[in-house]
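Collaborator request, handled under Task 6.
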Amino acid sequence: MLNFIATPIGNLNDISLRAIEVIRSSDYLYAEDTRNTQKLLNFINIKIKCQSFHEHNEDETSKKIIRHLKSKKNVSIVSDAGTPSISDPGYKLIQMCIENSLKYTLIPGASSIISSLVMSGLPTDKFSFYGYIPKKQSDQDKFFESLINEDKTSILFESPKRILKSIQKLTKYLNPNQKISICKEMTKLHENVIRGQVKNILSIIKENNFNLRGEIVVAIEGRKKIKKHIQIDKKIKEEYLTKLSAADSAKLISLISGENKRDIYKKLIEK
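Structure tokens returned to the collaborator:
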């Protein structure tokens, strides 16, 4: 069996009892950064050799793991923080498991995405996760343009070294009144969240001497849809209603115009 194990995003006490049990029963353990994972192993008092599994050896190591699984070995993959395959290696290995009809499962745990979404104070019913902001200038432009019409809360990762420049660039693309939050060091001793609007978030950071170090997660309010005032010409209204019912007329006009059928219906029955 292959186990993808979510690990704490900062506070080691967030490791689950199930995660500890699965790690302890593993024949092989793989991690993106073995040094970081060793701290967790020391904390939970488990002695097991940890091997590297990162973007530079993902293809070759995945083949090796598949061989272990075919030999009925118990293999576990852990992330440095959070869930494996989310902005971390793992997706290719999952595809290989599916192709080879090999079982795999996830042991869930802490998530910086969900934690920052809740802590942001922004709507949580719908959200989009965009991963890390691209490093290349040309890719950044396309990335920020994709956020312009996003109507759900957006969650982004960014490096503390680039966060200020990225926010400065964001202000050129987004509505100045959109709410934004920056979460840092989630679950750790110096956890902090700063909230504001696109137009003033940089000044808030400066005024509060906000230390932008550690893990950074940005949450952006979805763009609010502007409700259009539907106008239906009196002659058009009469022409439709002499041949069709109000409901059928609304349906037809909606198909042609793309406007909401209910709003059109209300306009049609107005006297």
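The cover message to the collaborator said: "The mean pLDDT is 91. The domain at 2-107 is CATH 3.40.1010.10 (Cobalt-precorrin-4 Transmethylase; domain 1). Please let us know whether this matches your experimental observations."
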